[in-house]
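USER: Write out one fold?

ASSISTANT:
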Amino acid sequence: MDAAVQTRAVGCDDGARLVPVEAARARLLDGVRPVAGVERVPLAAALGRALAVDIAAPLPLPPFDRSAADGYGVGAVSAGPFRLVGRIVAGGAGPARVGAGEAVRLLTGAPVPEGVAAVAMSEACVAASGAGDDAAGGAVRLAAAPRPGENIRRRGEDAEAGEALLHAGTALDARHLALLASAGVAAVPVRRRVRVAVLSAGDELCPPGEPLGPAGIHDSNRPMLLALLAGAGADTVDLGVFPDDRAAIAAALRGAAGCDAILASGGVAGSEADHLFGALREAGGEGAWMPIALKPGKPLVFGRLGAARCLFLPGNPVAALVGALLFARPLLAALAGAPTVGPRWLPAVSEDGWDRSPGREEFAPARVTGTDAAHRLVVRRLARAGSARLVPLAAADGLLRVTADSGPVAPGDGLSLLPFAMAGTSGG
């Protein structure tokens, strides 16, 4: 095994070679397969679910030539005049064919009869005669000849019958549901939801709502991680808070071995009070401790226990959130059969500056304060990297990122930003 990946619990600062974030993610996901089990659900229940199979169009989209505007379907590419032969509304019927010197009044979405060379928008009409603009027997003249095929949505221009609409693994969102509905698809086969157990470890931790001891703090990581997983479409199992007791944690892990994944925080730095790694081994699992080139969130434990993939994060709330976004979300996606891409960062520039040394990717809560001349987001760091403070995290618009090879940050330096609205912190 690589020297940077330890099979025993060691100190976070023991000098082991740091593993880049991308390499760590690749090792975590190596060999992960989607969960077994497929169910068919109606579109109303499919949001956030991963398609189990490719979906092909059962009919052409659109199924017929349609008018893309309110106007006149004219039988020739000219200004006319054209004799009006009828009127067709969306969902309605009218003349089956239009001759070269004829026109038909069409409203948006109406079927386009044969012979229509173009649909001229109503605004292009300069004169009409008859008992109303759309009266059969009347006439219409245009300001200029339309382009051939103008304002006509052709049959099958979105997709032909049998053409793939969506591929297996697609995490369905509102756009995909609209496409499926347009094709008449009422229900889709999706992979079952990934089941993830979550626990927090630490003598100092107390569940919210319970009185604190003289050296206690309320557990914030578990509610955060449970919400993040639920927003990503997982079924969650709340294992609760555990003291730094290896046997107790091992028993909880064994009880969760039937889940698809176990996510924990706290107790991974490798000190004598950190027991998650040892508890995993005691429970009969296998795993590794990995020092990541990451700030905050250097120590990481991953492995498996029975059918469950295990991922253990640091107890620092900012580090736990960073680790969840960089590692837990991709793991969940891989288990769900969805693409396992990492977070999508937006280009940004720093409003302020701070000292730092190269070597680790750095993350911190940040607020967007504007844009620069190149339309990049201007961001201001709200707390020093590695801070456990939750108030700046709650006030932030997202997490800023500084690459591992960067030295001190100066105002105007290029950064990246992961907006929380794109990070899955509030929904799938």
Residues 1-15 have pLDDT under 50 and may be disordered. The chain has four domains: 21-37+192-336, 42-60+167-191, 66-153, 346-422. The helical segments are 21-29, 174-182, 221-231, 246-255, 276-282, 317-336, 390-395.
